Amino acid sequence: MPTSRLVTFNDRSPHARSPFFDSSEPALGVLNPREGSRHFRLLRYSPAPELSPYVRHYWSVEWDLTDSDPYLQEVVPNPCVNLVIEPGRTFFYPPSPARFAYLQQGRGQVFGVKFHPGGFYPFLQASLSEQKGRPVSVESVLPITGAELEKLLLTSGSQGPITMIEQIEHLLIQSLPLLDEETVLLRQITERIAADRDLTRVDEVCRLFHIEKRTLQRLFSRRVGLSPKWTIRLHRLQEAAEALDRGASDGFLPGLQHLSSELGYHDQTHFTKDFKAIVGVTPEAYAQGIRG
Fold first, then answer.
1. pTM confidence score
2. Shortest CA distance to 107 belongs to which of 76, 86, 83?
């Protein structure tokens, strides 16, 4: 059975390695992560080598609010498909340009598989844009139904996330597609977008990767499910939210005009409009701790 290497975020277990933060994905898009860490435990695990061209990581969220009020956690969207395993809601979820909110109450756990942008398409072999944000059934990709997968993983979850990962990796490897050039190219492009905050225009991506704009747009539409413009925008707005979260934690908030300029916005009004569309409130309100 393939083995997985643990990488952690907000991990309090005594045997875990030091917390690992992927700079290409600020705090997993979790808004107000400092407050969230008081309510839930979020872990990430890297995939087996044969799955790494497709799978970005596995993730597990656990909470125990039995004696506490429910907690609503918001997440900035990202251009990745997620297989989410939880009772009655186990599906592959395509990326969306809208933020996502999850109400945690009582005691619970959700386990997930996060694919690289474009990494899910080789398994599905159908256009992600044609899904129009609709969840994809588990049996469309894996030799198991969603209900069966819930029973398999959530039962074994009591033995720890590693057991759950071994089970899902066994299923994914049974359906492992051949690695193709477009999957590799999309990973290179999206990793460059994530890492280079100066990369703010689709034309710049085309120039860097020697690809025509319409070809790039069709590639993203089919294999990612979002346009390259939205992909760039989501990463830059994630960075903005992270900068504001970090500033609130450190007691030093960045100037919004300077922040918007750093993220490639020539007009602060446009930056504010985009930020509110994704996060739900203006940057000023978010910096003050107001949530949408």
1. 0.84
2. 86
